[in-house]
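An instance as discussed:

___
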Amino acid sequence: MQGPQKPIELFCSYAHEDEAHLQKLETHLSILKRQGLISTWHDRQITAGTEWAQAIDTHLNSASVILLLISPDFFASDYCYGLEMTRALERHKANEARVIPILLRHVDWKGAPFAHLQALPTNAKPVTSWSNRDEAWASVAVGIRRVIEDLGQSSANPSRREKLVSEPQDARKYYVENKGSVQGLVIGDRNTVHQHFHDNTKEDQKNGIRSLEKGSKALWGGDYPSAKKELRVAIEEIDGEGQPREASKARYFYALALLDGKLPRTQGRTVMQSIQELMNNAIRLHPCASYYRIFARIKKNFFEHNGLDHRLNEVSTLEHKGASLLRCADDEENEEYLRHCQPCLQI
């Protein structure tokens, strides 16, 4: 039996002008700390007499997650931008840490070294531009929780990368089915033979998540060809069993991308069949209330304008199921994407 997991360390890189925002972030991460999932570190925790530069370097190089608190002052700080961010992105590129930009205040960050990363809060809307800042910080906290859960699954459930098998032929079978690399290890006497083998799915998962991030950005920006290209990769490479939330989101976003910004009623039946398959699989992987409600709106718009009133009972079934489920953390983002990509489909 495994013991309790060690909390994941978060390093906060921020400009001192934004210290009030740092304190708010700490407040909203309190539940993750109380649950033993994370510990946070920033330079205000340096005690008297400590070599401050060495302390920062130590934690910057040991943290599993690095939060960049982005603002005009962050960009103006040589230490934040030139040292901490540079080292953070080096570790991110080497798959040693996960970097998360958190947008505090409006600033032109187009072309910034971290611009390819998915930012928080939802839809990269700066915290200070939200009418209710608690909602903004809650969105940040939910996004960080997802990353922590993802990292926790990777360490606690190594079955996708390493398995223990009792017979050599099992390892050979695994190699053929998963296109992985087999590494043998014999332990014990002739009655105790084990082999560890590793596959390439870990890198595939990372490629899939990167494609999901790129695809969601392209979708939000109205670049539907790029969105479809990236989301196809995400669907192929994200493991639905290991990462059902991300796998379902890739299918939902791809369904929206297939509409090309046009109403469902203008689409042909082939496109609608593809959308139906995608939405059904999204629901199967991660049954959110919003998926049922959004799918109902898409179907209703198509049925009512294509002489398919006899199928409106399918819409009622989806609406009833959506109403019966409690809202989850993903519902707000899902609905925000629908409103943005399909503003005429009220939900």
Q: What stands out?
A: The chain has 14 helices and seven strands. Confidence is low (pLDDT under 50) at residues 157-201.
